[in-house]
Amino acid sequence: MKKFGVQLIILVFLALVVVNIGIFVHSIVLGADMNAYELNTQKLHQENLDLENQMYEVDSLSYAASQAAKLNFTQPANPIYLENLKYALNR
């Protein structure tokens, strides 16, 4: 009976060692995945900043003026402001 107890303890320890090795390997794989996702996130963040800069450039008045010059618009725009009650109240 004593021999069976010692064998059972050795078997449990071996099982725990195998499980510990498996968890260690799995954590290394998860760490590599986290690094890949972080690099991907940084790349997407930089791409987002570039797209925002392009959007602000396209939305600027200087871009509108350059496009108007390319399309041969000669009449300057007369902006309509809502402070003028005629346009604000639609009368």
The major β-sheet equals: none
- In angstroms, what separates the terminal alpha carbons? 103 Å
How many discrete domains?
1
- The unreliable regions are none
Give me the number of helical elements.
3
User: Could you estimate the helical fraction of the residues in percent?
Assistant: over 70%
Give the overall silhouette.
Answer: rod-shaped
Q: Beta fraction of the residues?
A: under 5%
Which H/E pattern describes the elements?
Answer: HHH
Radius of gyration based on Cα positions:
34 Å
- Quote the average pLDDT: 86
Overall SS class: mainly alpha
Beta strands, count: 0
Structure description:
It contains three helices and no strands. By secondary structure, the protein is mainly α. It has one domain.
Blueprint of the fold:
Layout: H1 2-59, H2 61-70, H3 85-88
Note the main attributes of this structure.
single chain; 91 residues; mainly alpha; 3 helices; 79% helix
Summed up:
With 91 residues, the chain is mainly α.
